[in-house]
Amino acid sequence: MKLKDNTTIWLNGALNDPITKILAKNSQLTKIQLETLLIDILAENISGKQLKYDEKAKLRLTKAKISRGSFNRTLTQSKENVIKSIYTVLLLGYLGVFESSTLDPYLEIANKLRDYVEAHQGISDKEKPEDHAKLLEIIKEELETSLKHLSNPTNQPL
Questions:
Q1: For the chain, N or C: smaller number of CB within 10 Å?
Q2: Are 119 and 135 in contact (CB under 8 A)?
Q3: How many Cα atoms are found within 13 Å in the side-chain-facing hemisphere of 147?
Q4: Is 28 helix (H, G, I), strand (E, B) or coil?
Q5: Counting beta carbons within 10 angstroms of the beta carbon of residue 1, is it exposed (0 to 12), middle (13 to 18) or buried (19 or more)?
Q6: Calpha distance 4→136 (Å, rounded)
Q7: Distance, C-alpha 66 to centroid of its chain
């Protein structure tokens, strides 16, 4: 299978995941910025080789041709947004906000998310696929419900 096909399958799976959609909707990244950042970071892992930016630009999901410059501008915007988000977390930590109980609902969701990822990664060949699928579905539904609740501005504790 070609790199473009593998990348397209992976990106569509990642970007269409219901949990990713909720998290992305409430993040500092646009869908295009997230897609571009994922391509920049992960495309080389998929291809197993170093890629130039014009090659990465061709991996975008859009049918329209994307220039290397356009890809780089979007990538720069996404990286700036990630850095600003990290600075926000650092600032809140420095000011002692994380010591407040108002963040408890977010920490609970973070723990559920970690459980979901660990359950997903912990698939063993000996487990019944349907049992594992049920567990993942339960955790996913719980996460979606919690995230949707917190993404409503009237329910946000901060």
A1: N
A2: yes
A3: 20
A4: coil
A5: exposed
A6: 29
A7: 22
pLDDT of residue 61: 93
CA distances 5 to 58, 59, 75, Å, are: 11, 9, 21
Tell me how far apart the alpha carbons of residues 65 and 20 are, in angstroms, rounded to a whole number: 26
CB contact burial 5-27 (16+ within 10 A = b; e otherwise): eebeebbeeeeeeebeebbbeee
Averaged pLDDT in 10-residue chunks for the chain of 158 residues: 87 89 89 95 86 92 91 96 93 85 81 79 66 76 81 69
Tokens 């571009």 found at? 36
Tokens of 98: 């994380």
For residue 75, CA distances in Å to 38, 39, 80, 138 come to 9, 9, 9, 35
- CA gap 43, 4 in Å, rounded: 9
- Token pair of 79 as six digits: 């990286």
Distance CA 72, CA 126 (A): 45
Nearest to 82 by CA among 42, 35, 31, 29: 29
**Angle, helix 18-25 to helix 3-15, in steps of 10 degrees:** 70
pTM equals: 0.76
Q: How many residues does the chain have?
A: 158
